[in-house]
Amino acid sequence: MNKLYPHWEFQIPDDEYDYTRYWRELSDAALIDPVQSAADFYLLFAIANKSIIQFPKITILHPDEIVEDAIKLGLSSEEIDLRNQKYYLYMKDSPIVKLQDIVDRSNDLLNDLVHSLDRIFMDYACAAIGGELRHHANNTCLGKGSGYDNRFRAWTYWGAICQENGTSHHLFSEAESIFLDFPNSSYGGKPWANAAKLVHDRLLMKLAGSPSENQTVFIDRIFNLQHNTGSFLNKLTWANLRSPELGSIEKMQETVLRAHSSNPADLTVLYDNASSDVRKAVSKLLKIALDSNINVNGIYEERIISE
After folding, report:
1. Regarding predicted confidence, which is higher, 83 or 49?
2. Beta-carbon contacts of residue 60 (< 8 Å; ≥ 6 apart)
3. How does the average pLDDT of the chain come out, rounded?
4. DSSP states of 11-50
5. Of residues 144 and 229, which shows the higher confidence score?
């Protein structure tokens, strides 16, 4: 295989295999909880896109519009001032405006989360692909050509190769082909070829139109990606920042991901796995919506509103 890909030949000393030298975002992986991040991601996306509630339309008038309409009605300057004061007092207390504030704040939180997860998941996905490639018998440049060689040593070798080649998208196109060349086994194969193609498409901006949308689709697919024996994210020990009984990353498919994909969405499961800031946003949103007789698009328990 190395004859086909001579640029993969790259050696580093045996005693220098700290993969975080090349995949720096993974230095803090032990502080990241992917399950919580998934719950935050899907809840914030739903709030920012106004899909949790049937969001009422609102027209916010510019002060000049109010004055122009008042003049047409022949109102005095004092009457115009009074009308302005009443309008802005109404808008200040309007549930629709309060809901919009939550939407705007959630959109900011979502953008921050997307940029953060994109960096972490790109480093993780790239490293994990290198680790799996070591199981191909001919791939001596990623270790000793043995599936029993150290995963993190392979991550390091692959990091050096990617650094030497500028983390080229061509590397991941080649990796996709190699995974499809694996014999039928619990290693490589179509699931890992899908992972390599995902990274390739992410690098080439093929997942969506804008950079932010491209990152968002990439993150969504990483959460849902499965390899031969479980979640694609299970090659590293991540944090669990939630209650222990909520389960590990291997439970994400049947908890957070199922809750998100169900119709209607199970807001309670997502809420229970989310971070404090996102839980507060969901609680406020539901409380205002219910107080204002606005329909909620999702399953939820009453306790969420009072927390």
Report:
1. 49
2. 91, 97
3. 87
4. ---TT---GGGT-GGGGGGGG--HHHHHHHHHHHHHHHTT
5. 229
Q: Which amino acid is at 143?
A: G
Return the closest-CA partner of residue 194 out of 159, 218, 162.
Answer: 218
- Parallel, antiparallel, or unpaired: how do β-strands 226-227 and 230-231 relate? antiparallel
Amino acid symbol at 56: P
Beta-carbon contacts of 125 under 8 Å, excluding residues fewer than 6 positions away, are 195, 198, 199, 222, 232
Q: How many helices (H) and strands (E) does the chain have?
A: 12, 2
Q: Where are the domains of the chain?
A: 29-56+97-306, 59-93
Alpha-carbon distance values, 156 to 4, 35, 38 (Å): 21, 26, 27
For the four alpha carbons of 51, 52, 57 and 63, in that order, the dihedral sign comes to: negative
pLDDT, tens only, 66-117: 778 778 888 887 877 777 777 666 666 678 888 989 999 999 999 999 999 9
Q: What is the pLDDT of residue 202?
A: 96
Tokens of 223: 């959460």
Q: Cα–Cα distance between 194 and 128 in angstroms, integer?
A: 13
User: Which pLDDT score, from 0 to 100, does residue 179 have?
Assistant: 92
pTM of this structure:
0.86
Query: H/E element holding 159?
Result: helix 151-164
The amino acid sitting at 141 is C
| Adjacent-strand bridge partners of 266 | 299
Q: Which amino acid is at 237?
A: T
Distance CA 71, CA 88 (A): 18
What is the C-alpha to C-alpha distance for residues 263 and 246, in angstroms, rounded to an integer?
22
Identity of the amino acid at 183: P
Separation of alpha carbons 41 and 274, rounded Å = 9
Alpha helices (H) in 251-302, listed in sequence order: 256-261, 267-273, 276-291
